[in-house]
Design a protein that fits this description.
By secondary structure, this protein is of the alpha/beta class. It has 15 helices and 12 strands. The protein folds into 2 domains: 115 residues, Aspartate Aminotransferase, domain 1 (Alpha-Beta Complex); 222 residues, 3-Layer(aba) Sandwich (Aspartate Aminotransferase, domain 2), CATH 3.40.640.10. The strands form 3 sheets. The protein has a 7-stranded mixed β-sheet, with helices on both faces. Strands 9-12-11 form a 3-stranded antiparallel β-sheet. Bound molecules: 4'-deoxy-4'-aminopyridoxal-5'-phosphate and glutamine (GLN).
């Protein structure tokens, strides 16, 4: 009677680990979200707009004043010129934007290249469109192996999914990666779905390399962003998709029937804040880099090993000097026994390699980071 369209999909690890952290009272460094408040002025603006009566549907593509603020921000911070009318769509979260982009362009039988470890929402979206995800592993440093990707491309390949800064590894792509990608997509006539939700979280002086900053990729890409990450409001579930007018037209055909529109007072509040404080996002890199370094500094005496994350708000820790346990069971056990919840990195792979890595979210207060590090340091072999 009922034949599941997604038989291998369960409840996400993020939901499960956050629930376990709540149930056990553990420090929750699993699911990615800040444990601190957004800027006060932004939160206030949301209340003001709800009280002022801005509570009915916004235009389908998003409030014009928010789309203008997005375009102004792209020009100011990335020197990318986009038309807010025809190239920017406000969506209820990047997850929805990515889903709609995939539904708009992937047909039954199409192949979509994804890079493992891969964010969990991509493959179900590809499958619901009738496509097939082709998993290509990143190399051991989580950099992109262009030779392997090029070998995975077939006449059926339609889209390549890109994610930088990368969840879960924290790696970031370079200008050279953009050039490699551009030559690949031109050679094979591909589209790109670029997940750039952590665009402002790039550390140690590196720059975020957006597909929008590359002339070839600009024409062939959907670029996805999340206000949730940039303004510490993941629960507001609002983001945007930037793409050429031709791609945006197809994107909106799907978006208008998936959710139709994003939440109105949230859009007003974001527009106010972005107009008032356009450079706020530029403060994020230093503040998150400091949190990363504080967490790693407090882990100094432990037997974990790591390479500091280059971007995102996730830090991978290698626990192979502590135990041989499988990561999935280990993160549950450590949540219960040591009171720190994390995410097993094998979850992000079609075929997990031999590695012992857990992902920790460092978008947390100093007290929580310090306490978590102390508990992790105290774990016996
Ligand atoms: N992509 C990546 C890589 C993410 O980590 C997240 C996390 N939340 C999303 C997309 C989804 O963002 P949103 O909450 O705006 O849907
Ligand atoms: N993107 C977040 C993470 O990687 C989780 C968002 C979600 O739970 N879907 O932790």
């Amino acid at each position: 009677m009922l034949h599941s369209k997604l038989p291998q999909v369960g409840t996400t690890i993020f939901t499960r680990m956050s629930a376990l952290a709540t149930e056990t009272g553990a420090l929750n460094l699993s699911q990615g979200f800040p444990d601190f408040n957004p800027p006060q002025r932004l939160a206030q603006a949301l209340g003001e707009h709800a009280l002022a009566g801005n509570n009915q549907y916004a235009p389908m593509a998003g409030l014009p004043r928010l789309r203008e603020a997005v375009a102004a921000q792209l020009l100011r911070h990335r020197r990318v010129d986009v038309d807010p009318e025809t190239e920017v769509t406000i969506v209820p979260g990047a997850t929805e934007g990515i889903f709609c982009a995939i539904q708009a362009v992937v047909r039954p039988g199409d192949e979509v290249v994804v890079l493992d470890p891969v964010y969990d929402s991509y493959e179900p979206a590809i499958e619901l469109a009738g496509g097939r995800a082709i998993h290509v592993p990143l190399d051991t440093d989580f950099a992109i192996d262009w030779q392997r990707i090029s070998e995975a491309v077939t006449p059926r390949t339609r889209v390549l999914m890109l994610n930088s800064p990368h969840n879960p590894s924290g790696s970031v792509i370079t200008r050279n990666d953009l050039d490699e990608l551009a030559s690949l997509v031109e050679r094979h006539d591909l589209l790109v779905c670029s997940d750039e939700v952590y665009e402002y979280l790039v550390f140690d002086g590196a720059e975020h390399c957006s597909v929008l900053s590359h002339p070839v990729l600009r024409e062939r890409s959907f670029a996805h962003y999340s206000f949730g990450k940039t303004f510490s409001v993941t629960g507001w579930k609002t983001g945007y998709c930037v793409a050429s007018p031709r791609l945006t037209e197809e994107f909106r055909k799907v978006h208008q029937y998936v959710t139709y529109v994003a939440v109105t007072p949230v859009q007003h509040a974001l527009a106010d804040f972005m107009h008032e404080d356009p450079d706020y996002p530029l403060s994020l890199a230093a503040s998150y880099q400091r949190r990363r370094d504080y967490f790693l500094g407090a882990l100094g005496e432990s037997r974990f090993t790591w390479k500091p994350a280059s971007g995102s708000y996730f830090q991978l820790l290698d626990y192979s000097a502590i135990t041989d346990d499988v990561d999935l069971q280990l993160c549950e056990r450590w949540t219960r026994e040591h009171g720190v919840a994390s995410i097993p990195v094998s979850y992000f792979y079609a075929e997990p390699p031999e590695q012992k890595l857990l992902r920790f979210c460092f978008a947390k207060s100093d007290e929580v980071l310090l306490q978590a590090a102390e508990r992790l340091c105290a774990i016996p072999s």
